[in-house]
Amino acid sequence: MMTEARRARGSRTFSRLSLHGRVAHDLGLRVLRGELPPGAILPTEEAFSAELGVSRTALREAIKLLTSKGLLESRPRRGTRVRAREHWSYLDPDVLAWRFDAEPAERSVRDLFELRRLVEPAAAEMAAQRADKIAIGRLEQAYRDMDAAGDDGERWEEPDLRFHQTIISTTGNELIGALGALIETTLTMTFRLSNDNPAGQRHSLPLHLAVLDGIRLRKPGRAKQAMLVLLKGAEQDVHRALAARQARLLRHAGRR
């Protein structure tokens, strides 16, 4: 069972604890689900705030957030409308999380792992060239913490995330480092999908160790290949979890 903190971790660029943050989250989901399709004109500020049961200030701040993410645009005398999909900031962690919630899981899995395969193997390769003792120590500690967590998914998630983010930051490339929040979101989505994985998590420890060894032995090609293998295994875990979830739903439906 996911904790509330784990469930909320998908959105990283604003606080969901604030009123305008909750409004932005709800509106963002409505846009990504197509309930507010591209070209749709939002009601007037007065009417929409009354409909949502929030203050005009909270609605105004939420619209500013969604405008900054490319989902909305406001023009004088023309109101606020939903922008075409090509303008949406898909690499924004919040938009990515909303897209995950709005679309079929199979498509989300494909897109998430295609993105991870583009970024993380190259990052592991660079980390093997640039990691210092401090970075290697952090990777080793994250690995030990995953080992201690075993198949406890709640305990596993944090050190696994720390392992992957350390690799991203160890590249020393600030532009790649800026993808840290994006990688966190994709990992969180992966954790959410594989939460029901009947195989647990411990079986992936040797795959993480292979990445760690490639980095600390300063073998870039080995680190890159090990990360590719790790991601392949993670994707297979997600598909197994999805299949188990679907089978459970079918059994439940059959008992009705």
How would you explain this protein's 3D organization?
The protein is mostly helical and 256 residues long. The chain folds into two domains: 84 residues, Orthogonal Bundle (Arc Repressor Mutant, subunit A); 151 residues, GntR ligand-binding domain-like (Four Helix Bundle (Hemerythrin (Met), subunit A)). The chain is built from twelve helices and two strands. The chain has a two-stranded antiparallel ribbon. Strand 1 and strand 2 form a beta hairpin. Helix 2 packs across helix 4, helix 7 runs antiparallel to helix 8 and helix 8 packs antiparallel against helix 10. The longest helix has 35 residues. The two termini are 24 Å apart.
Main sheet characteristics = 2 strands, antiparallel
Poorly predicted parts? 1-11
CATH evolutionary superfamily of the largest domain:
GntR ligand-binding domain-like
Any idea what the CATH architecture of the largest domain is? Up-down Bundle
Which sequence of strands runs across the widest sheet? Answer: 1-2
Beta-strand level of the residues, as a percent range?
under 5%
Number of H- or I-type helical stretches: 12
Average pLDDT number = 87
Portion in helices = 55-70%
What is the radius of gyration computed over CA atoms, rounded to a whole number of angstroms? 21 Å
- The run of helices and strands is HHHHEEHHHHHHHH
> How does the helix and strand content classify structurally?
mainly alpha
Number of strands: 2
- The geometry reads as globular
